[in-house]
């Protein structure tokens, strides 16, 4: 019980080495007794200047930089950037590449949500689910390794398609994973959904109303957990998402528990999309467009045709020129709306690239969510925000 | 509501102050007059359901007469439409929109930090990604691309440390 007669606000420091801040997030917290009066996030410890770097790289060379933004779902970042560049050219992506992109993006979403549920539960005190969730995440990373050669920063989605086709082993593993995954989500839900401690720690914590989420710009599960039925995959369709049937989970409560439920349902819905994509994907076909404006000529052509050799050399050493103008592409990344705003001056390099990082914008609502709660709940609120510092600091 | 209808509606509200165009499948509304800027944004939020603020982008054009440009990225969930509201200025001073969308707070701080845009009326305008003692604004085109020493001989943070080379 706070003695209101002697109200004394003290300032405490949380992070940047605090284990529940998922990286290097420093919070300056003003507390009255144990009640939070004000939270101010202090970020930038991981700032690498991605936007400035991109202004001095060719369009192809920016792709590896995007991997390092949200390092838990690098393929979503690749996808957003490549779609933004493709908007300049209106490139026709081959069918098989479109399906591979959806498969990779949804796998990245599952991997990211698994890390989220594992660490969020670990922060609050439920150790067991951490082990189970990381078991499945490991399987996804293994599949990435089989398919792309890298577990995390794979840079596999390229402008005009994907880097190369996936080996047969990738699809065998993925089919087996998709069949088992729903049962695995049941396991996590068995551990948490009706767990009394979990409910006490999450219900009513970090409330955001539907109007607040829009005014603060918090997207993704933070919006859907507050009763706003919004998903860029449906509302501003990109790629081939209009070919799949899935539901957009929405919860009305707007607290940490609601956002937990939204993310759990999203795991199942992503699995549904994976299932349909595996059924529909054409058995063979090109995975890179033959549009000479953006795509590298194939190796076979380079060895035989002079023009292809020159074109390849030109694109690799100088890059291709994008038309003058400005464009934006946002995608539904695991954390929310990830967008790339590109300004081109008709050169080989973007004149300006602005990354709309969902974690950064979601962090803006942290003070609103945490005010009036106990200091111990701040851990749950940071967890439910699902921050990734690589993306916040850029 | 399509973008043409929205543009016509705004044109009726703010005659000859806007320039609406579509470029690479993105809808832009350029505000020609700074005085009408906040009224246009408020009208977009209240009358055209653009409640969701997505982003604030600043671009530096050192060779143009209007050297800085602000782009507000808005989305209407009801109409499933995205618009970009643009405003150019000769100097780096722009009105803040934190009173219309509180979420613009962090976005504007980032643009102040990296681009040096001063948002007049912003409640807490300070650096966010870079340290307080950083000199210059790196996303400006005249920012030199070279190795910098992060700590000079002076102990700016007052930590009692020596950072001499």
Task: Note down, in words, how this protein is organized.
The complex is a heterodimer of chains A (394) and B (165). Chain A is an alpha+beta fold and 394 residues long. Helix content of chain A is 49%, strand content 12%. In chain A, the strands form three sheets. Chain A has a three-stranded antiparallel sheet with strand order 1-2-3. Chain A has a three-stranded antiparallel sheet with strand order 6-7-8. Chain A has a two-stranded antiparallel ribbon with strand order 4-5. In chain A, a hairpin with a 2-residue loop joins strand 4 and strand 5. The longest helix of chain A is centred in the first third of the chain and has 30 residues, at 95-124. Chain B has 165 residues and is of the alpha/beta class. Chain B is built from three helices and seven strands. Chain B has helices spanning 3-13, 34-47, 104-115, and strands spanning 18-23, 26-31, 52-60, 68-76, 81-89, 93-95, 118-120. In chain B, strand 6, helix 3 (104-115) and strand 7 form a beta-alpha-beta unit. In chain B, 36% of the residues are buried. The mean pLDDT of chain B is 83. Chain A binds chain B through residues 43-44, 47, 49, 51-52, 55-56, 87-88, 211, 214-219, 228-230, 235-236, 325-328, 330, 337, 339, 341, 343, 351-352, 354, 356, 360-361, 363-365, 368, 393-394, and chain B through 23-26, 28, 51-55, 57, 59-60, 71, 73, 77, 80, 82, 84, 101-107, 110, 114, 127-131, 138-139, 143, 145.
